[in-house]
Amino acid sequence: MALPAEEWRRSAARCWAALEPALKERLAAAPLGEALRVGCGSFRPEEAALRKLCGRARTGKEPAAARFYREEGNRRFGRCCYRDAVRLYSQVCLEDIARAESHGYPDRLLPKVLLRKAECLLRLGRLQDATETLTAAENKMATDGIMTSPIHHTLLKKLSQLKNKIREESCPKPAQEAHGDVQRESEIWEENGSISGASSSLSLNFNPERGRHLVASQDILPGQNLLKEKAFVSVLCPGEGDSLLLQDSSETVWDTQVTNADLYCHHCLKQLLASVPCCGCSYAKYCSQNCADVAWEQYHRTECPLGALLLTLGVFCHVALRTVLLAGFSEVSRLVEQLHDDDKRDLCNAEAGGEHPSEALDTRAGTKGIPGCNDNGQYQSSYQAVFNLLPHVEKHSPEHKFLCMLSVVAVCKKLQETGLEAAVLSRESSATGSEQKACEKTSDELSPELMIMAEAMLRHVLQLQCNAQAITVMQELESGDGAVVNKKPVRLATAFFPVLSLLNHSCSPNISVSFSGTAATVRASQPIPSGQEIFHCYDEAIRMLLKCQMDARNFLSPEHLLMGELEDHLAQVYATLGKWQEAARHLERSIQFVEMHHGPSSVEMGHELFKLAQILFNGFAVSEALSAIQRAEEILSVHCGPQSTQIQELQEMKTCLLELPRSILQRT
After folding, report:
1. What's the pTM?
2. Which residues 6+ apart lie within 8 Å of 517 measured at CB?
3. What is the tens place of the pLDDT at every residue in 380-391?
């Protein structure tokens, strides 16, 4: 849910419609800072409606939920749905224990609680955490002179066995290690001195028509690494639509639907085996205590009390808040003031008939004058680069800017009400805590410092319309007996990648982007000659929309892409039934449509060939399977890199087939 909840959008639209025409014109034409000051008073009539909406997003700790999740976990366990059961148990067991530890549990019974916690961690596969907890329990027992029971001896023995097994498996075999070195060596490239994380084969250019963009400074081969960048900021997308908002705030049914929020770490985006819950809210979950601690220190300390509000206002507003929290008030203030100075200078130049800023930039030497670059002409993955991404204010409708403005004001008002302003601004308030809260609760206006933060946040929300990067992950779909793994790309998070955002859009891109956690890797998907611009398709939906527009006159004609999707679904049905030849025949027809619409070397073609290889492998069609494996490997290694999960699975299938007896290979 990138934009706010539908009810809040309707409320903002009604508020906009009720404004006087003169005020609408003033808000539409004013710079962002002035628009915030003028329109801040418009929030008060909508405050009650927003508060009611936030009541439907349950993010607080609710003791009654523990029994519900425990009982639901028991039901899932009884139906042999072990993964779902573990997820439900993990929401309650460790949290209950942590609450017992922090709320004065009797000291003499603490070893029992620690051992129970260690058992939970052990069963959830978190061996390191279990080891640390057992050490604490042993130390406590030794201090108190308590002897462990036979059950606890058994638990310690089991943990020791598993630790030894993990230690053995963590030592790579020589052959595998050597193979990995070859793959890593093939991906080594010389880093660019002017663009952080980019290859030396790229250069940063600027002109008034194309803006900032990257160009190949030498010939580039398919599969060559061009950029490796960690997101400056990322926020996990909670789920589809308004699924996290209850229809009625009086409802008492807790949701057991699995969403991204349950499957991935809210900080590093790694897949969760067993989550570490936030100590203050029921929404944020992490893969380790370290991620939980880092998130708390960097941003979640502020976001935690705002959880329901941020879910209601959408991911874009959440990204904007987290961006300014990570940057810090001093850096945000510096760049906002610099922007005001630049605007005044540009206005004076325009009135004097001087040169337009974009024209002046094109004549400057090197990259020093390009927005986002530092004083040394380097473009880094920094907040300065994020701040200088274009918000395209003039291209947004006045109604949309008003919605974004109200949403940002709502966040900043909440910061004032909850007494978090001082923490956000990284300064101590001169007032005492009670005086500060009283003052903030009665204030109708934002403080000057919060106005600066609000202006930056509004700029970021508008930037995200054109500069947001979806972090995607290949997620498995339900596939019957699991003989064929069907995957599709799923939007996992929304992020700012300052360097990746330099790439202009094209529906025929010459690069592919893959993700590992919060890091993006850009590879050339085709030969790129020196001097050619590097293009990225911002959204697969755009490409599909254009394809549908071209096919609109011949809807569901024999060449329409939907016909290929029908063939793909038929292949899945036959694969579930174990009819491998029929499945392969339908999938080969689907591949023809994919090749026609996306090209023979597209990543879509690679995914379809991967499925065909699985079907032929399961159908024991050895020679055809080896051929499909080779074709899929050639394409996916270019788009996803040799270390991707799909490439490794293809290599395992190939090894298995090649190790079959020669007599069997000859018959196939």
Report:
1. 0.75
2. 268, 269, 270
3. 889 999 999 999
